[in-house]
Write a structure and sequence with these properties.
Order of helices and strands: HHHHH
Mean pLDDT: 84
Pfam families: DMT_YdcZ (PF04657)
Keywords: Membrane, Transmembrane, Transmembrane helix
Distance between the termini: 38 Å
InterPro entries: YdcZ
Low-confidence stretches: none
Protein name: EamA-like transporter family protein
Helix content: over 70%
């Protein structure tokens, strides 16, 4: 279990770093171009990894429902929106709002899928995340740019 926790934390660090890098590229170009290069370089890296490790076309991939492949286009929107937003509201607020959106979506999917979960614990987590964003925004307005 510890390995999975560490992998999740590493994923969070890498998402934050990726958002910063794409936000910086977005400032020099546009969010769409930043998203394009993010995906083009990611595609090249995944292709090389797939060629080395194997398994680019696993058995059963064609049996997946069509909507299982919508993660790609959704990812394009996520990366482009994140590249645009982070340059305007900052890394902390972007991260808090993204995580808040993920929490709301996760709670909804768990509810729809009948996954046993504590609604109130999840709702409290969402409120704390959004509250952190509000406190962060208020602190910036009172204290000026930081």
């Amino acid at each position: 279990m510890t390995v999975f926790i560490l992998l999740a934390c590493l994923g969070g660090v890498l998402v934050g770093l990726s958002r910063q890098l794409n936000g910086r590229l977005s400032i020099s170009t546009t969010p769409l171009i930043a998203s394009f290069w993010n995906h083009a370089i990611g595609f090249a890296a995944l292709t090389c990894l797939g060629l080395v490790v194997g398994g680019l076309l696993p058995a059963g991939a064609a049996e997946a429902p069509w909507y299982a492949y919508l993660g790609g286009p959704i990812g394009v929107i996520f990366v482009a929106a994140g590249s645009w937003v982070i340059a305007r509201i900052g890394a902390v607020n972007s991260a808090l709002l993204i995580i808040g959106g993920q929490m709301v979506t996760g709670v909804a999917f768990d509810y729809i899928s009948a996954v046993p979960a504590s609604f109130w614990a999840n709702a409290t987590g969402i409120v704390l995340i959004v509250g952190g964003m509000v406190v962060s925004r208020r602190r910036r307005k009172v204290g000026g740019p930081q």
